[in-house]
Amino acid sequence: MKKLLVASTSTTYGSEYLEYLLDELKLFFSSTESIIFLPYARPSGISYDEYTKIVSYSFKKIGKQIIGLHKSNNPKKTILDAKGIFVGGGNTFVLLNKLYELNLLENLKSTILSGVPYLGTSAGSNLCGLSIGTSNDMPIVYPPSFEALGVLPFNINPHYLEPNMKSKHMGESRQTRINEFHFFNKQLVVGLKEGSYLKVTGNEIVLKGEYNAVIFEKGKEPFEIKPGSSIDNLV
Fold first, then answer.
1. How far apart are CA 4 and CA 58, in angstroms?
2. Contact 107, 151 (CB under 8 A)
3. What is the C-alpha radius of gyration for the chain, rounded to an integer number of angstroms?
4. Residue 33: alpha-carbon gap to chain centroid
5. How far is Cα 89 from Cα 194, in angstroms, rounded to an integer?
6. Shortest CA distance to 57 belongs to which of 26, 6, 16, 117?
7. 41 with 90: CB under 8 angstroms?
8. pTM of this prediction exceeds 0.90
9. Distances (CA, A) of 101 to 39, 44, 98, 228
10. From CA 99, how far away is CA 109, in angstroms rounded?
11. Domain 3-234, CATH 2.30.30.30 — does that match?
12. pLDDT above 90 coverage of the chain, percent
């Protein structure tokens, strides 16, 4: 039975890394003391070691050990043997490209489907969808495919922002870009605002956190759902 937390962000305004999720994470990873961390998205281009150190500091607060996958001599086996997995934010294209390069996507998907708890934030959340086509990131590298894990039956748009009607010019809104995506694609897209996340237990998908999420379906007007709402019945 799948167990996922799919979060828009790792850091909300004024908080430390993962601080807003720590109580949830303590319960979510209660069955393991160690978590395999995939640092490949590399926010701001930091090193894998630097990224792993930041994550380790936060998880230490709830008594969990972080093990960077980049240190493994056999990453496929490490993924298959994992008791908990975290994929952090950064650049989604860089992340997916590295997973294709290491041939890890199928191993990661099978581990998630076996019931190993998976936490994804930002790029790590994009990775859960059918594709990374609704990422906000720049395509600074070109993965062999935009197809992602597909452990969720839709796409994620993390860091979702409402159109600012008072601004004279902010470029295309997220809604406009998702509409453009739907010109060529048909899957549902969930716009996750900062501080919001999806909790997945088997086939049940529930919105958690403080804010509404925005649901985009091809050819229909977007609408909002409140925290506590199920998304699985919309797909």
1. 19
2. no
3. 17
4. 22
5. 13
6. 16
7. yes
8. yes
9. 14, 21, 5, 38
10. 11
11. no
12. 88
User: What digits encode the pLDDT tens for the residues 38-94?
Assistant: 999 998 889 999 999 999 999 999 999 999 999 999 999 999 999 999 999 999 999
Q: Which residue has the tokens 């086509």?
A: 133
Which amino acid appears at position 40 of this protein? Y
With left for phi above 0 and alpha for psi between -120 and 50, is residue 15 left, alpha or beta?
A: beta
Burial class (CB in 10 A: 0-12, 13-18, 19+), 82: buried
Q: Where in the sequence numbering do the catalytic residues fall?
A: 122, 137, 159
- Is residue 221 within 8 A of residue 204, CB to CB? The reply is no
Residue pointed to by tokens 């919309």? 234
Query: What one-letter code names the amino acid at 129?
Result: G
Domain boundaries in the chain?
Answer: 3-234
Q: How many CA atoms lie within 13 A of 186 on its CB side?
A: 1
Look-up of token digits 């997995």: 85
Helix (H, G, I), strand (E, B) or coil at 182: helix
